[in-house]
Amino acid sequence: MFDTTLQKTNRWLNEATGVLERKDKHTAYVAFRATLHALRDRMTVEEVAQLAAQLPMLMRGFYYEGWDPAGKPLKLRTREEFLARIARELEGADDGLDPELLARAVFAVLDKRITRGAVDHLKASLPEKIRELWPG
Fold first, then answer.
1. Which of 12, 31, 106, 117 has the highest count of CB atoms within 10 angstroms of its CB?
2. What is the per-residue pLDDT for 55?
3. How crowded is residue 92: how many other Cβ atoms within 10 Å of its Cβ?
4. Taking Cα atoms as reference points, which of 12, 10, 7, 45 lies closest to residue 114?
5. So what CATH class is 2-131?
6. How confident is the model over 104-134, as pLDDT tens digits?
7. Residue 70 burial by Cβ neighbours in a 10 Å radius (0-12, 13-18, 19+)
8. Mean pLDDT, rounded, for 41-69
9. Rounded to 5 degrees, what angle do the CA atoms 90, 93, 97 make?
10. Roughly how many angstroms between the first and final C-alpha of the chain, as a whole number?
11. Residues 95, 7: Cα–Cα separation, whole Å
12. What does the pLDDT read at residue 1?
């Protein structure tokens, strides 16, 4: 079970490194962690659980890391607010990371790796300006 989730997580991170055009998995991890936390904090508890069910077990751990459902969902309505939330997660991480590029990379992997129904539900829950960060 642990080998399977490690392999699956590595595949997702490798895909993100390709989209990011970077070779290090650490940047992909940072991208996933920051973007998933921004998503998580603007969703209802039910939506959070639905997305978690689609993630590899290892990713599910850092998705939930530090989560406090009190006061959620946050009212992140604009692209700028959403990207600012990602930027806050990046504080102390590698300087020069572009929150929009990170979000687009994570959304591209999610678009390919989670079920179409889950993608459609997730996208429908996002305001239009944030939804525009998704591929296609």
1. 31
2. 98
3. 6
4. 12
5. mainly alpha
6. 999 999 999 999 999 999 999 999 999 999 9
7. exposed
8. 96
9. 65
10. 34
11. 28
12. 83
Distances (CA, A) of 12 to 28, 72, 115, 127: 9, 27, 14, 25
Token readout for 85 is 């939330």
The Cβ-side half-sphere exposure at 7, using a 13 Å CA radius, reads 4
* Tokens matching residue 46: 């039910």
Return all residues near 73 (Cβ < 8 A) that are at least 6 apart: 41, 42, 43, 44
How many percent of the chain have pLDDT more than 90? 88
Token pair of 109 as six digits: 């992997």
Q: How far apart, in whole angstroms, are the C-alpha atoms of residue 4 and residue 105?
A: 23
The type of residue at 82 is F
Other C-beta atoms lying within 10 Å of the C-beta of residue 132: 10
pLDDT confidence tier of residue 23, bands split at 50, 70 and 90: confident
User: Could you tell me what percent of the chain has a pLDDT over 70?
Assistant: 98
pTM of this prediction? 0.94
Amino acid at 31: A
Residue with tokens 């940047």: 27
